[in-house]
């Protein structure tokens, strides 16, 4: 995962990232996903959204293939 990357040289705020994630999670089966994303993120172009999605997929693949290790969280004692 590369947190230094930005999409199409655009900055994504935490709020925009959350809107992106929520829209993707709730509308992923929608045939007009890009249209839904554009409505939810009016300040982002379709290219920005596509780039952000592609980076997300790259990050997921890197985690799944073990390229990026999962954090070593301390055990929580009850």
Structure description:
There is one protein chain. By secondary structure, the protein is an all-alpha fold. It has a domain at 14-64. 53% of the residues lie in helices and 0% in strands. α1 (14-27) packs antiparallel against α2. The longest helix has 19 residues, at 46-64. The protein starts with 13 loop residues before the first helix and ends in a 14-residue tail after the last helix. The mean pLDDT is 84. This is Myb-like domain-containing protein. Keywords: Nucleus, Transcription, Transcription regulation. InterPro entries: Homeodomain-like_sf, RADIALIS-like, SANT/Myb. It comes from Solanum tuberosum (Potato).
Q: Main traits of this protein?
A:
single chain, 78 residues, mainly alpha, 3 helices, 53% helix, SANT/Myb
Describe what is shown at a glance.
It comes from Solanum tuberosum. With 78 residues, this protein is an all-alpha fold.
Element layout with pairings:
Elements: H1 14-27, H2 33-40, H3 46-64
Helix pairs in contact: 1-2
Structural class: mainly alpha
Instruction: Describe the largest sheet.
Output: none
Order of helices and strands: HHH
Q: Termini separation (Å)?
A: 32 Å
Tell me, rounded to a whole number, the average pLDDT. Answer: 84
The percent of residues in helical segments reads: 40-55%
Pick out the low-confidence regions: none
Q: What sort of overall outline do the alpha carbons produce when their principal axes are compared?
A: elongated
The total strand number stands at 0
Number of helices: 3
Q: How much of the sequence is in beta strands?
A: under 5%
Using only C-alpha atoms, the radius of gyration works out to: 15 Å
Protein name: Myb-like domain-containing protein
Keywords: Nucleus, Transcription, Transcription regulation
InterPro entries: Homeodomain-like_sf, RADIALIS-like, SANT/Myb
């Amino acid at each position: 995962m590369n947190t230094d990357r930005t999409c199409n040289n655009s900055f994504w705020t935490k709020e925009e990232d959350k809107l992106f994630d929520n829209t993707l999670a709730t509308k992923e089966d929608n045939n007009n996903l890009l249209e839904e994303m554009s409505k939810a993120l009016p300040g982002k172009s379709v290219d920005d959204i596509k780039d952000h999605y592609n980076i997300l997929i790259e990050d997921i693949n890197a985690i799944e293939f073990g390229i990026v290790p999962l954090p070593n969280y301390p055990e929580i004692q009850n």
